[in-house]
Structure formats: C-alpha cells, structure tokens
Amino acid sequence: MKTAIVWFKTDLRLYDNEALIKAIAQSEEIIPVYCFDDAHFETTQYGFKKIGNYRAQFLLESLQDLDNSLRKMGSGLVILKGKPEVEIPKIVEEYRALKVFAKREVAFEEKQTENLVQTALFKLRCELETFSTSTLYHAEDLPFAIKDIPDVFTTFRKKTELDATVRAVFKAPITITSPEIPEIILPTLKELDLRFSSIDSRAAIQFKGGETEAMKRLNHYFFESKSVSAYKETRNGMVGEDYSSKFSAWLALGCISPRAIYHEIKKYENENEANDSTYWLVFELLWRDFFRFMFKKYQTKFFLYSGIKSDKVNSKALNKKLLSQWINGTTPSEFINANMLELKKTGFMSNRGRQNVASYFCNELNMDWRIGAAYFESQLIDYDVCSNWGNWAYLAGVGNDPRKHRYFNIEKQANDYDKDSSFRKLWLLQNY
After folding, report:
1. Would you say which domain of life the source belongs to (predicted)?
2. Is 285 marked as a binding-site residue?
3. Residue 260 burial (CB < 10 Å; 0-12/13-18/19+)?
4. Of the candidates 107, 110, 136, which has an alpha carbon nearest to the alpha carbon of residue 290?
5. 427 appears as a binding residue in the annotation
6. Please, which of 217, 274, 307, 310 could form a disulfide with 269 given CB 3.0 to 4.6 Å?
C-alpha cells in the first residue's frame, strides 16, 4: 500500500492546498500530521516568546477546525511535538510512508528545518516533496528569476501584473483514504508554557482560528457587507471590524490562500462592481508576495541590523526603560500608546498603527529595529515571518524602501487618521 504523509505547517486548510491534493492523487493512503516544533515555543535572543498567547490560541483553534474537516472526509490530524527532523521520520517509519508532502518554505529558520527533515528522510529512502502554496503568483510564473526580482515594489508589481497570471485554485477533496487516526489530542497552553489571554472587548475583531472561520469572514466582507467596495477609502481606519479585510490572521496560518481570496474578488467584481477598492485588495496581496520573494532572494539578510543595505550605522544600544514604555503604552505620545495597548490586549493592530509605532521605535527611541520586530512576532495573531520582518526593515530604512529614510510625524498622523480622537479615547479612556 502506497502511504504518504501530509505535513501541515502554515497551510491549515483543505481548499487550494496543492500538497494535500497531490498527496491524495499519488497515494493509496495518507496520514495528515502537524508537528508542534519546540523551537517555536522558545524565547528569542531579544527576550520575547517566539509565539505568544494570542497566536497560540488561534493556532490551536485552527488545528481543531482542520481535524474536524478531515474527519468528515474519513481522515484526521495526527499531532506530534518535538523537533520535526526527529518526529516526522518517526511517523514515516511507523506507517512505512514512501513520501512526505509539504508546503515549501522561504524564510531562513523554516528552510533550515525543512532541510534537516529532508536529510533525515533521505536516510529512510523517503522523499520530501514541497509545493509553493502561500503566494498569489507562483514563483515559476514570475517574469524574472528570483535573483533578478526588482528590490522596488512598484517595479515588481507593474511587471508581474503585466506578464504573469494567477493560477486556478485546487478544489478541496471530497473524501480522503486514511487508516484509522486516533482522536486528536492538542497540547494545552500550559503545556506550551503559555497561558490563556482573552481578547479585550474593545478589539477591532474577535479572531477565531480555522478555515471555517476564514471562509465566514470572506463571505461577510465581500458578499454580506460588501465592505470590499470601499476598502481603498476605509483601509487606514483604526476602529471597527470592517475598515479593512482582517484576512491577515487566517492568511498567516494558511487557513485561507491568497489565490482563494483573489478568485472570490473576481467573482465579486462580476456580480457587483470592479473599482479601485477591489483592485486595492489584490494590490495588498501582491505586497505580501513581494516580501516572500524578497526572502527567497536575500535569505538571512532581513534578520541583520543592516538588512539588505550595507551602509547602515552601528546598532543602537537597548534602553530597557524606553522599551518598556513602548510595549506598555506609557510613552509621551497618546497615539503610540493607544496602538500599543491595542496590540498588548488584543494581539492585533491596524496597518496605520503598525507603521507609526515602528517609525516611532526606530526614529524617536533609536533602538535596534529587530527588537521591535521580535516583539511583534510574539504578540501578533497575524504574525507572518516575511511580512513582519520585511515591513520592519522597510520602516527602519534597511529594507525595500526606495526613499532612504521614512519618518512619520506622529502628531500629524494622529490628526489625519484619528481626527475625532475616537481611537485614542477607546484605548486611553482615563485620559479623556
């Protein structure tokens, strides 16, 4: 019997999951697995948990939802915990699997783990086959080789839009043939050395993990509320559920694919209208692609203080007092404080807020931008390695910004984007 393992990572979905579909097509039986990688639950060199409470909760919900969906098809999810390069080969031996199907990684640590697993599997005469499942445009369809991708987004976008097309989605399987898979036992937050944190009731949205919830959100934002038709005008908002799509958390864990969103946009445009706003959502998905391809091109450079530039001055020393004020929302700036409190109490922050607090960190506090990026990594529900580190490098002036030094006038930004102080009042009530 030809048995294959499907190793789920940040692709926790059945719809438009090429690794899963190819595994089903090439095998007689498949074993879906997810491995809680010990390295993801350690404290980083910057002093923060790699995965914080909010993101861990979202992950557990997403895995439970994936298991529910798999069971309806005659399968289920096997949960492993430890080092993937140890645990994946063990399950390969247990089921005598000939092949492991998985999502292809681009960021440095993830790529290292993938290589370690591949080496361990090679010794067992088991093949690891990976698929590019997390971008809107497939890397093979780009009008340039990875090493030649333009470092300026606008150049990348214009040529890609002109010369590349978005591939069709892979439909979700109807049935999956698996041996009997025991009932799922997910680790508790306590076992992961974390604790439950309820999302503050003032949150812009109460995120819940899983493909089911991702599809609900998609349907709400497009077809129930038609909010997508005003996206370009409202996307810089800061209060409420529908000023932006809020797809980011589900995209980050792969509960939905960018291609699925793209094709729903096209469906929406056919049924309703195509305008600047519907295009702008595709534009934002392209930004996400851009950072992924930049990580393929530059590998470790986005984790260096000098980023992808070579002319950055020496790193600034850590100031623990200023860092604490920034994290806890006790800086001299009310606008920064409101945004940082939102992040601390909900695991989310608006795009406008993120740009401002990152600019403040780099320009006003003059600290190593990677400390800020590492705090975001720990705190954000929608943390995505390429988008997070790529955007922080951009704001720090060591990434893909063609303008060398982007500086935000925080007070002007507050007046422009929180004119009536409603956002500041929401989070700093006692001060108003």
Report:
1. Bacteria
2. yes
3. buried
4. 136
5. no
6. 274
Measured distance CA(142)–CA(249) in Å, rounded: 26
Packing angle, helices 211-219 and 258-271, rounded to 10: 20
Tokens 């500041």 sit at which residue? Answer: 424
CA 293 to chain centre: 14
Domain count within the chain: 3
Residue 287, annotated ligand binder? yes
Same domain, 42 and 100: yes
| Domain range for 241 | 211-299
Examine the fold and report which residue of 133, 154, 173 is the final residue of a domain before the chain moves on.
133
Instruction: Please tell me whether 290 is known to bind a ligand.
Output: yes
Is 129 in the same domain as 86? yes
Q: Tell me if 421 is assigned to some domain.
A: yes
pTM for this structure? 0.96
For the stretch 220-268, pLDDT in tens is 999 999 999 999 999 999 999 999 999 999 999 999 999 999 999 999 9
CA atoms within 13 A on the CB side of 170: 22
Cα(314)–Cα(319) distance, rounded to whole angstroms?
A: 15
The verdict on whether residue 303 carries a ligand-binding annotation is no
CATH number at residue 395: 1.10.579.10
Of 106, 133, 160, the position where a domain reaches its end is 133
Contact 37, 83 (CB under 8 A): yes
382 is in an annotated binding site: yes
Same domain, 360 and 281: no
Residue 11 is encoded by which pair of tokens?
A: 């692709």
Q: Is 284 annotated as a binding residue?
A: yes
Instruction: Assign residue 285 a region (left: φ > 0; alpha: ψ between -120 and 50; beta: otherwise).
Output: alpha
The set of long-range contacts for 407-410, using a CB threshold of 8 Å and a minimum separation of 24, is: 407/359, 407/363, 408/355, 408/356, 408/359, 408/360, 408/363, 410/333, 410/335, 410/336, 410/356, 410/359, 410/360, 410/364
**In Å, how far are 13, 57, 91, 206, 349 from 64, measured between CA atoms?**
11, 11, 20, 18, 25
User: Per residue in 83-129, pLDDT tens?
Assistant: 999 999 999 999 999 999 999 999 999 999 999 999 999 999 999 99
369 assigned to a ligand binding site: no
Does 246 count as an annotated binding residue? Answer: yes
350 appears as a binding residue in the annotation: no
